[in-house]
Design goal:
Layout: H1 2-15, E1 26-31, E2 42-48, E3 54-61, H2 69-81, E4 90-95, E5 99-105, E6 108-109, H3 110-116, H4 120-140, E7 153-155, E8 161-163, H5 178-182, H6 195-198, H7 209-223, H8 241-250, H9 261-268, H10 278-287, H11 294-307, H12 313-329, H13 335-345, H14 350-356, H15 358-365, H16 370-378, H17 380-383, H18 389-401, H19 409-422, H20 428-440, H21 448-460, H22 467-481, H23 487-500, H24 506-518, H25 526-548, H26 573-582, H27 584-595
Antiparallel strand pairs: 1-2, 2-3, 3-5, 4-5, 6-7, 7-8
Length: 596
């Protein structure tokens, strides 16, 4: 324990958060494994002390290069004042003589993310969101970013891109605009600048042409990789063909003819253009879900089930799933949403499944919505393996069993089918005490199909019931079902008897079950007769095997010949045994001849 305490103190000391700033509500951890060489900041993992939620901490040491201080101070100021859905979310910060700290939502650098997730759909959506943020800065705020490149973009756990890099963010019309004085101090900035900026011509800043050019460099680095020189921008083999024309217009040499980011957005959202795809439409709908009407939501959820498996896993689990669960919580979407949730849930490990999905499923089972309950029962085999036995026994089983007394036949039938999945997860006492009794009720159901499925279910679940349960409850129920007026129910009862015969007492098989089966050997329906013959043959084997283990006679052996049947006209026990071994016809003829 002392080691870990020392480690925490060491880490805090490294980033300067001890002493006077001990009340800082975030704990700063180790630096991220991947750091941007073009960034002035060192990124650290962090956690919020109150709830241990993960954050990212941008750390700048003021003593490392004093000439960078105006840039980092400007970034700190802009982080505190700028708000946009696609910009890095600022949570907290502190400025002290030796350090500047900026706490944001948990992210990693874009370049680190693209090493393992170069997915065209995510890149397309990422560029869309960054373009939205830059358009907001240029058009709505009349600001210029001036540091737009991959090292200024960060990615959330959901794969969402967020704009940062605010070191030169400013109003270019101001006389002391930071971009005009300190822009050249940004690391490796030259290859990201258009010709006029490289020649110190700042007159084109106000029309957004600088950010337009730099947005093209972001496109390049998103698809191609690190930009080493401005000449590399002409290598376009990996850039989508639908985007290529607009990409080249962003790189127009003359500022006045160069496409702005706002114009790029307008071009990309045209029908069949590079931003017109199912993935982006899904994202946009999710972001505006709260203002959509019921009809629009239902249609969206209906279509989502067919698309969600094609989406990147990180996007489905971190962005789509929370919105779907939120919709279910408020009663929107119903079965369509649940089906999509089940598909996404299969991508999660059991720990995250229990954290995000299980509470919602338990709550949904308690709701009176029949369509939703039917969907839950229909998909129970998909989600139950991810749920702990404790939750199944304590929170789900009782809601499932309640379906046996539902007035809707479809619910009762689906409840019967769901028992094939849930019974193996129940503890033994629940199976013997409650589950068998609950399932047996549907053998009296007015719907013949439900009675038939119940018998099939009993046959398949036989191994989960004790021999005592088979002998006292299940066997008599099957015998009754042999008289069911529905032909398929009688056939199912015969098959269930065959499947569970090993747990019946041979004496019961011979005295009760086999005679009842034999009555169906001449059933009016051929399928029943055929199955009855198969079942009777199997039961006879059970009886035969038991008979072979029995003694030859239950009569006590005596040494005198005057025992029962003895004397001059009688037989000894041994002679009776011999007669029995001759067969029934020989024994009868012998008796008659002696009588004469």
């Amino acid at each position: 324990m002392a080691y870990f305490s020392g480690l925490v103190r060491s880490t805090l000391s490294t980033v300067g958060l001890g002493g006077a700033h001990a009340n800082f509500p975030y704990t700063v951890g180790e630096p991220l494994e991947h750091q941007e060489s073009d960034s002035l900041w060192t990124l650290h993992k962090g956690t919020k002390k109150e709830d241990q939620s993960e954050v990212t901490v941008f750390v700048y040491k003021t003593t490392q290069r004093s000439d960078h201080l105006p840039l980092t101070k400007n970034a700190y100021k802009r982080f505190r004042t700028m708000r946009h859905p696609h910009m890095l979310t600022y949570l907290d910060g502190i400025e002290c003589p030796e350090y500047i700290y900026i706490v944001t939502q948990s992210v990693i650098p874009l370049s680190a993310y693209l090493r393992e997730n170069r997915h065209d759909q995510l890149i397309s959506w990422g560029l869309y969101t960054i373009a939205q943020a830059v358009k907001f800065l240029n058009v709505d705020c009349k600001l210029v970013h001036g540091n737009l490149r991959s090292s200024s973009v960060y990615v959330t756990p959901a794969g969402e891109w967020r704009l940062g890099g605010f070191e030169t963010l400013c109003n270019p019309s101001e006389p002391d605009a930071v971009i005009k004085t300190y822009h050249g101090l940004l690391p490796s900035i030259q290859q990201y600048c258009p010709p006029e900026i490289q020649s110190q011509n700042w007159s084109s800043l106000e029309n957004g042409s600088l950010d337009g050019w730099q947005f093209a460099t972001l496109i390049y680095e998103s698809f191609q990789g690190k930009l080493n020189t401005a000449a590399d921008l002409s290598h376009t083999d990996t850039i989508p063909s639908t985007m290529l024309r607009a990409y080249k217009q962003l790189l127009a040499p003359a500022p006045n003819s160069r496409m702005t980011v706002a114009q790029f957005m307008a071009a990309g959202t045209q029908p069949r253009s590079f931003f017109d795809n199912e993935f982006i439409r899904t994202n946009l709908f999710l972001e505006n879900l709260s203002v959509k009407d019921v009809k629009e939501k239902n249609e969206f959820f209906r279509q989502l089930g067919g698309h969600v498996e094609k989406f990147p896993v990180s996007f489905s689990t971190h962005k789509v799933l929370p919105e779907l669960l939120k919709s279910l919580e408020f009663g929107a979407g119903g079965p369509q949403v649940l089906q999509a949730v089940v598909k996404i849930g299969n991508l999660l490990d059991d720990e995250n499944y229990g954290k995000y999905i299980t509470p919602t499923i338990v709550k949904l089972f308690s709701l009176p919505d029949r369509a939703l309950r039917y969907c839950l029962l229909e998909n129970i085999a998909s989600f139950l393996p991810h749920i702990s036995d404790k939750v199944v026994n304590n929170s789900i089983y009782s809601h499932v069993a309640a379906g046996f007394v539902d007035t809707a036949p479809a619910i009762r039938e689906q409840t019967v089918k769901s028992f094939l999945t849930i019974v193996p997860r129940l503890n033994e006492s629940t199976v013997q005490r409650d589950a068998v009794a609950a399932l047996s009720k549907t053998l009296y159901d007015p719907e013949p199909g439900i009675r038939t499925n119940t018998l099939i279910c009993f046959g398949k679940l036989g191994r989960y019931m004790t021999p005592s349960t088979h002998q006292t409850m299940v066997g008599p129920l099957f015998a009754r079902s042999l008289r069911d007026p529905f032909v398929h129910a009688r056939a199912a009862a015969l098959m269930a008897i065959s499947a569970t015969a090993e747990w019946q007492l041979p004496k019961d098989v011979a005295n009760r079950i086999l005679p009842a089966v034999c009555t169906l050997l001449l059933d009016p329906e051929k399928p029943v007769r055929t199955q009855a013959l198969k079942t009777a043959t199997e039961l006879l084997k059970v009886v035969e095997e038991e008979a072979q283990t029995m003694p030859e006679s239950a009569q006590p052996k005596t040494a005198t010949s005057g025992a029962v049947g003895g004397g001059p006209g009688g037989q000894s026990p041994n002679s009776t045994e011999g007669a029995l071994q001759e067969g029934w016809s020989g024994w009868a003829v012998s008796s008659l001849s002696r009588g004469l």
